[in-house]
Structure formats: C-alpha cells, structure tokens
Amino acid sequence: MPVQTFTAKVSDHTLIKDKFQYVTFELIEPQTLNFQAGQYLMMNVPGMAAKKSYSIASNPAENYKVEILVDVSPQGDGSLYLQSLNPGETISFMAPIGRFVLAPDPTEPKLVFVATGSGISAVRSIILNLLHTQHDLRPLSLHWGLRYPQDIFWEQDFFLLHESFSNFTFDLVLSRPPENWPLCSGRVTDCLKKHYQSLANTGFYLCGNKPMIEDVSQYLLSQGVSETHIHHEQFY
Q1: Is the pTM of this model over 0.85?
Q2: 38: region left, alpha or beta (phi > 0 left; psi from -120 to 50 alpha)
Q3: What is the fold of 110-234?
C-alpha cells in the first residue's frame, strides 16, 4: 500500500490516567486509509523538522478514521502538541508505514502478543482485526505489562474480548504490584516462563520499550524459538 499524505480532524481527545493521550482523527482527504494492522503514521508537528511516528491503535476495517495512543509523560514537543489539540482542529500525517504486521506464515498456528505501556497500540489493532474482522480461530494470547495499578486502563475491553472469543486470553502484568495482586507480576518475561511449557509452533509479536524487547527476544532464542518467529517494534 503506497504511503500518502492525509489531512484529518480531531474528533475525540482523551487523557487516560494522566499519562496516555488517546486521540481519534476523522479523515478528511483522502477520506479512507487502507493499512495493515500494526502499521504506524508519521505526523507533522508544527515547529519540528522531523515527523513524529505513532502506531495506529484502531482496526483497519474502520478505515475512515485512525486512533492513536501516546505516552505523553515525557512532555516532549510531540506530546505537548497532541495535548494542545482541540476537537475540530486539523492535522496532517503520512501513512501507512511499518512492517510490524502479522506474518503470513502457516508455521505459526499459535500467536502470542507481548506489550508494555503504550506499545499496546499496534498490538490492539492486530488483535481487533484478527478477532472482529478476520475471525481468526488460532489461539491468541496477550501479555501486557504496566508498572502500577493506577496505570491500568482498557482492561475491561480486553477481558470482554476474552469472554467473547474463546480463543483469546489476556494476561495483565504489573511490575510494581500491590500486596495480594492476583495476576502476574514482575517482568513480562517472568510470565512467559510461567505460562508456557512449550514455545514451539508459535509466533511472538513484541511491542514496547527496548529493554523488554531485548529481554524477551533473548529468552525466546534461548528456548529454541527461531528468529523468524520473533516479530517486534520499538518505541523508546
């Protein structure tokens, strides 16, 4: 799919947990964006020569809009620009870009997604597309790592997907859990060790901070997982 320049207007704008900016853009010209789940856009930010890249969090089936989720806590120029946008304002970006997409590989009959923080964006797009649009019946698992209980969001959405689709499981991981936290705690790598006796015939999709991707990749490789079955994107 060719990369194009789009103009869009802000239709919804929410700050989640005082940390994650969630923005929905309604496309103006062109009016539709055909992309693969997992790809990203590059946004023009006034005053910056370089464009800012943001993963698309929405299902490609909803091609009249794009949703992004950004950790704005660093308060960089891109973050400040996103926070300053008001409903109705227009922006421009280039899309679709990126290769963090589902591999057309018949040797991946099981899929495991691992995300940390706002790395959930691209993974959310892939999972929504697989379940709602593709009606994929393969076992799909999501392990999402956050730090504190106050960072948790979208958990009800993913638990609802678990209830609605028998082939999807959701594991919420806290690295700084409260006492008596009933779910996984520590690093997402620790949870992978806990949940999987066998890693064969599985495609692993990693999205988040660089240390997590390096840690999980090294663990998977040490367990005999082929590098061709480890797919990743980096944000930090």
Answers
A1: yes
A2: left
A3: Rossmann fold (3.40.50)
